[in-house]
Amino acid sequence: MAAKKKTSRKRWSAEVTEHSDALSLEESVFKKRSARQIAESLKRSAEASKRRKGTPLQSAISMLNFDINLAGKNLSASRKRTLEKAKDELRELFEKGKE
Questions:
Q1: Which range, of 18-22, 61-65, 67-71, 72-76, averages the lowest pLDDT?
Q2: Euclidean distance between CA atoms 19 and 13, whole angstroms
Q3: Which of 29, 98, 97 is nearest to 63 (CA)?
């Protein structure tokens, strides 16, 4: 029974990632090596989205947090650092856009 529950969760998270009302994400965005590349992709997706509920920055960070939280304990320390750094990169990219 535990295996079935795990499968359901996996399907649920894939469904959220693929069909979220927040953003249409570039394929494999969270697998990019560079925090800057991840941030740039999320920024493009957030700004292009007509379905998001918050600001582009809020939506982009929300999707990034979703991926970090979903991976949980399976995320390596270096990968978590890269994804956390992507948050800082996002804030920087959006701040530059205001100028």
A1: 18-22
A2: 10
A3: 29
* For residue 89, pLDDT beyond 70: yes
CA dist 22 and 39 (Å) reads 16
User: Cα 92 vs. chain centroid, distance in angstroms?
Assistant: 16
60-69 LR contacts (CB < 8 Å, sep 24+): 60/23, 60/90, 61/87, 61/90, 62/22, 63/20, 63/22, 63/23, 63/25, 64/30, 64/38, 64/90, 66/16, 66/17, 67/17, 67/30
pTM for the structure as a whole: 0.74
- Output the CA–CA distances (angstroms, integers) from residue 79 to 20, 34, 42, 99, in the order listed: 23, 10, 17, 31
